[in-house]
C-alpha cells in the first residue's frame, strides 16, 4: 500500500515521503479501514517536525481524521462488517491506503456526507460543539463572535452557531475569506480581523457586545475581545495561533462581569466520557439531518500531500484540505 511516512523529524517536512508498505493486519479489537479520504490538520504538520505534544515513534504515518470502508476485522470485533462506510479519528496513521484503528474509534458515516466531508468534520465540529454548547452555554438569539472564522474549526463554529440559532459575527483576515464565509453560511456579519474590530462588534450588537467570543488566536485579538464582550459573556480560549499567550488583570472580568473559559474538546471527552459520547452523537445527528454542512476547500491526491500541507501553512484554506489515497 501507499503511505506518507515520516522517517525523521525535520523542518519543511524534509523527513517525509511516500513509500510502499505491506498492508497491515488488524489485531484483536481492531479494524482495517480502506481509507477514502484523510483530512489535513495542523497537528499533522507539527508532528512531522516534532512540534506537537504527541510524538509517535519513528517512522510513522501522519493523519488523524479519515473516512473509508471497513476492509478487515480483528478478533473480537462484532460491531462492524466488511464494507461498512465509516469515519473516525486516530492519533496518526490515516494518510495511507489502509489504516488500523480500534473498533471503538469508528462511527458510521452519515449518508448525507461524501467521503471528503465525512473525513473533514469530526474534529472541527466536535471542538465547535464543546466550545459553544458545553463551555459557552450559547442560547438562541445570542451574539457569537468567531475569530479565525475561515479555519477548519472556526468555519465549523460559524456553521454550528447558526444552526443553534445564534447571531453570528465571523472575523477573518482577508476579503476573499470573508466573501467565502458569507457565501457558505450567511452569518449576520463578516468583519475584518484587524485592530479596531471591537467598535464594529459594538455597533452590530447595539452597544451590548458579543455574548460568546470564540478565540483560537490569542495575543492582541484576545486583548481587544475583552473590550467588546457583553456583561455575563463567555470568552472561549481555544488556542494561540498568533504565537502570543495573552495575560489579563482579573479586575477586568470582575468589573465587566464576563467569564474566561478554556476549551479542550478532546480532554473534555476523556474527563467526562458520558458527555463526550453525547457530544459526538449530537454532531453526528446534526450532520445526518443536514443541519450542519462541512466545507472542503480542496481535494488532492495523496501524492500531492506537500501542496496540501503548504496550503495550510500559507493560511489560504477556508475549511479543510483533504487527501485521497
UniProtKB/TrEMBL annotation:
Enzyme class name: oxidoreductase
Domain Enoyl reductase (ER): 17-323
UniProt keyword annotations, A-Z: Oxidoreductase
InterPro entries: ADH-like_C, ADH-like_N, ER, GroES-like_sf, NAD(P)-bd_dom_sf, Zn-ADH-like_protein
Keyword Oxidoreductase: yes
UniProt xrefs under Gene3D superfamilies: Medium-chain alcohol dehydrogenases, catalytic domain, NAD(P)-binding Rossmann-like Domain
EC number: 1.6.5.5
Signal peptide: none
SUPFAM superfamilies: GroES-like, NAD(P)-binding Rossmann-fold domains
Stretches of the chain forming a coiled coil according to its record: none
Keyword Oxidoreductase applies: yes
One of the record's GO molecular function terms: quinone reductase (NADPH) activity
Top-level taxon: Bacteria
Protein's recorded name: NADPH2:quinone reductase
Amino acid at each position: 500500500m501507499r503511505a506518507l511516512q515520516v522517517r525523521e523529524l525535520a523542518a519543511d517536512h524534509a523527513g517525509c515521503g511516500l513509500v510502499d508498505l505491506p498492508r497491515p493486519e488488524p489485531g484483536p479489537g481492531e479494524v482495517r479501514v480502506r481509507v477514502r479520504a484523510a483530512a489535513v490538520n495542523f497537528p499533522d504538520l507539527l508532528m512531522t517536525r516534532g512540534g506537537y505534544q504527541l510524538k509517535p515513534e519513528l517512522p510513522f504515518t501522519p493523519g488523524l481524521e479519515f473516512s473509508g470502508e471497513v476492509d478487515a476485522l480483528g478478533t473480537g470485533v462484532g460491531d462492524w462488517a466488511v464494507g461498512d462506510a465509516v469515519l473516525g479519528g486516530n492519533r496518526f496513521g490515516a494518510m495511507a491506503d489502509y489504516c488500523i484503528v480500534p473498533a471503538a474509534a469508528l462511527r458510521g458515516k452519515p449518508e448525507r456526507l461524501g467521503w471528503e466531508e465525512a473525513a473533514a468534520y469530526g474534529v472541527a465540529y466536535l471542538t465547535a460543539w464543546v466550545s459553544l454548547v458545553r463551555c459557552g452555554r450559547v442560547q438562541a438569539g445570542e451574539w457569537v463572535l468567531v475569530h479565525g472564522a475561515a479555519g477548519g474549526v472556526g468555519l465549523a463554529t460559524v456553521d454550528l452557531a447558526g444552526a443553534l440559532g445564534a447571531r453570528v459575527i465571523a472575523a477573518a483576515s482577508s476579503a476573499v475569506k470573508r466573501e467565502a464565509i458569507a457565501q457558505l453560511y450567511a452569518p449576520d456579519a463578516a468583519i475584518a480581523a484587524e485592530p479596531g474590530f471591537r467598535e464594529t462588534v459594538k455597533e452590530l450588537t447595539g452597544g451590548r457586545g458579543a455574548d460568546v467570543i470564540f478565540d483560537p488566536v490569542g495575543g492582541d485579538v484576545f486583548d481587544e475581545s475583552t473590550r467588546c464582550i457583553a456583561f455575563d459573556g463567555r470568552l472561549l480560549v481555544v488556542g494561540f495561533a498568533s504565537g502570543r499567550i495573552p495575560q489579563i488583570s482579573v479586575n477586568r472580568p470582575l468589573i465587566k462581569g464576563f467569564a474566561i473559559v478554556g476549551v479542550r474538546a478532546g480532554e473534555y471527552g476523556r474527563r467526562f466520557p458520558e458527555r463526550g459520547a453525547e457530544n459526538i452523537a449530537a454532531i453526528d445527528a446534526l450532520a445526518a439531518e443536514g443541519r450542519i454542512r462541512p466545507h472542503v476547500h480542496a481535494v488532492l491526491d495523496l501524492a500531492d500531500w506537500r501542496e496540501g500541507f503548504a496550503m495550510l501553512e500559507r493560511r489560504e484554506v477556508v475549511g479543510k484540505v483533504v487527501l485521497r489515497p
